[in-house]
Amino acid sequence: MTVSNLHRPIPRRKTAAKKRPLLLVLSLVGLLAFSCAAYLIFHRTGPPPQDSAASPSLSLAQWLRLPAPYSERQEVIPPGRTLAGILSAYSFGPADVHNLVEQSRSVFDLSSIKAGRQMRFYQNPEGGLEVIEYDINDTDFLRLRRSGGLFRAEVLKFPVEIRLAAVEGQIEDFLISSFERAGENGLLALDFAEIFAWDVDFYIDPQRGDRFRVLFEKKFKCGRPAGYGNILAAEFRNQGRRLEAFRFTYPDTGQTDYFDESGHSLRKEFLKSPLKFSRITSRFTSSRFNPVSKIYRAHYGVDYAAPVGTPVRATADGKVLAAGWNGGAGRLVTLQHKAGYETMYLHLSNFGEGIGAGAEVLSGQVIGYVGTSGDSTGPHLDYRILQHGKHINPLAGRFNPAHPLRPEFRAAFQHQTAEYRLAQDVQALPRQALARLAVLFDLKIPFLRL
Asked: Would you say residue 62 has pLDDT above 80?
């Protein structure tokens, strides 16, 4: 065998090595294509729009079935602008405006239009105004359509499309900013926090590196994001523990709750905190230096620092025992709960609507607002729990969960849970494929982290 023959296999190995990245790229591209196809299969929308407002993928002129030459013009009403001033650009005189207001009065009072709302105008090729639309609020709009010599008025709903979406990410600092970095609005983070509020205090418990994953409904109005629907499934990995939640609605009663995969309700007797996001400045202790009296004494509550006016929530269902001024405690609300529990909320600036002795309250209901009344050196809430008259540590309490999933619906729940898991995985496939491509080509894309 010659020397050249000894070295013939070497080029083949190099060629094979060069092919590996190409094969990997092709595989990832195939995975991405499959992911997109699967996403379309699992893509879920709401009920089809009615005839009065057809598919949101069409322009407003197409919804109206106006001929192509009809032009559309949009205007956001500026402060101080009147209807007469707006319509003067379309050759409407005072009498025309008066007639338009009268023709629509039984449906909507056009004299009450508000600055900041959008109006849309549709003209025929000759410049005549055929259709006027005014956004009454985020869900309804007024449509005035010419019919003969008059305008026919009707109030319609914006066509809203519900799409299934998923997001996942890692806690870097705060929950809201972490959701925003993952591409979603902070409102979704608040809904997420509400689900786990019985197990997690989202100011003190989350740590850098914790991860979240959410499957949710996303609303689209005229093809543009318009808020969120229900969270269907959620996962939070917090300090080594894994919390999961799956939404389930009982078919017979219509009652909805969130359960873990074993069917245990995420709701407990008491919320982890009376404030959604706040900072603990003082904990439950038998000896604490009091900054007002300048002596050491017991502090049987937890102090949460928060701006004046921050809503304070009832941590459990109950009845108001007292709501009023109480010396050094300032404005105080005391609630009575089952099993001999009482909760106290001190130093409030004001009380929630309808909060008075004897009122029934629900867990999470706003009962007051953070203040600095009474013996207080700054805005905060002093929160306390008693059982049979004895103070207990709110941060160390172990409270019983609400009723678990009813046994007769366990099979339906497990089937739905499996669908949610599959939908989460399908939604995540395109992102995972793109992330692997980014790693392969050393692309720095912050939101594509494996």
From this structure: no
